Amino acid sequence: MDADGDKRQVVFDKVRLYLDELFEEVHYEEATEHFYVSYGSTVLEISVDPYGEEEAIVMIMAYCVQGVEVDAELATGLLRLNHGLPFGAFSLVGRDIFFHHALFGRTLERANLLNALAAVATISDDYDDQISGEYGGQRALDRIRSTGGRRRRSGN
Question: Checking DSSP bridges between strand 55-66 and strand 42-51, what pairing results, if any?
Fold first, then answer.
């Protein structure tokens, strides 16, 4: 394993330990090396990636709204929302909107991970009704209930 892989693995192992301590049920997807947890009504995806020579990034992402009608008004609205947020950002992949926030992994502590997970889930939950009401689509939880599972971020 190279140096990037070593740093990533240390942070990855720490994240796995913290998630196992914090949640009764943690799903790990081997193919993507991502973790999935339910936090309230939100599904969170957690990944760990190398960042520079000395660091790894822990990305926390919430599925927010899926199947929106993409247009300039939506893009401008998401940018406006991002501007007013204290951290994190909304993103648009295909017709799906996500909310995400990144943490430095090397100095990550259990409480910081929990706080970030809670904040990402809360912001996604707070805005999903507003976004779907203005731009269409389904809240992620409604999509999961109606299809039995989450859609992949494939750009469709």
Answer: antiparallel
Write out the H or E segment, with its range, that includes residue 113: helix 110-135
Distances (CA, A) of 111 to 23, 65, 150: 13, 28, 28
Alpha helices per DSSP H over 62-109: 72-84
Give tens-digit pLDDT for 106-117: 999 999 999 999
Q: Which amino acid type is present at position 58?
A: V
- Up-side HSE of residue 82: CA atoms within 13 Å toward CB? 16
Q: What are phi and psi of 104, to 5 degrees?
A: -70, 135
> 121 φ, ψ to 5°?
-65, -40
Q: CA 142 to CA 154: how far, in whole Å?
A: 19
How many whole angstroms from its chain centre is CA 116? 10
- The pLDDT tens digits of the residues spanning 55-87 come to 999 999 998 998 899 999 999 999 999 999 999
